Amino acid sequence: MSTTLDPQVAARLKRTDDGLVAAVVQAHDTGEVLMLGWMSDEALARTLSTGRATYWSRSRQELWVKGETSGHRQWVREVRLDCDGDALLVRVEQEGPACHTGERTCFDADLLPLAADPA
Amino acid sequence: MSTTLDPQVAARLKRTDDGLVAAVVQAHDTGEVLMLGWMSDEALARTLSTGRATYWSRSRQELWVKGETSGHRQWVREVRLDCDGDALLVRVEQEGPACHTGERTCFDADLLPLAADPA
């Protein structure tokens, strides 16, 4: 396992002030957007080298391998970087629900009201 | 058009230090992840009330209606908030390519190397 990111990849990242890149996680089979995570350079290096999605927890301030405690692992099929280097698209095979609430995705519960008649 | 966010929605947002929430943008028909944008409270209020995806440009430090100059507009079908309030999923009908480079999505160009044999 590599904990150091390839310098050529590292040079392309545009990080937030706290050194993170947003990672959009998508089910490779259904196309569902499962969650949004955050990756530090080390989290991305571990994700690429182990094939297990690994994030930086902003609340706990630590690396976090998805499913390590819940068993709801993410097996990485593909990682893409966006055009300006500030977002990753991680396509995964998701075991069980992606959300810690037990929902299939983290976006299942909360639909915001859209104006019916845009003005 | 409303430029002020519903206080009940505003209370559920968990913003970055610069007051933004990440917005994952997905094509409502194909399920493709098109781009990642950032929304301030006002950008979200405008998005919900006009049905046109509106972001905060971190580089230009201004509100930005997607497609205003390029014509590559996004018509919003659905906006969802994630379980911990720090990400939005915006499902849109995309006119033309979503990426300013002319690619269909902002994630088309750059596939990162994944270890073939995870260790």
TrEMBL record, chains A, B:
Note accompanying the cofactor annotation: Binds 1 Mg(2+) ion per subunit. Binds 1 zinc ion per subunit.
Residues at which Mg(2+) binds: 82, 84, 86
Gene Ontology terms for molecular function: magnesium ion binding; phosphoribosyl-AMP cyclohydrolase activity; phosphoribosyl-ATP diphosphatase activity; zinc ion binding
Coiled coil: none
Primary location: cytoplasm
Any GO CC annotation of this UniProt entry: cytoplasm
SUPFAM superfamilies in alphabetical order: HisI-like
Subunit structure: Homodimer.
Role description: Catalyzes the hydrolysis of the adenine ring of phosphoribosyl-AMP.
Family indicated by similarity: In the N-terminal section; belongs to the PRA-CH family.
Protein name from the UniProt record: Phosphoribosyl-AMP cyclohydrolase
Native species: Nocardioides perillae
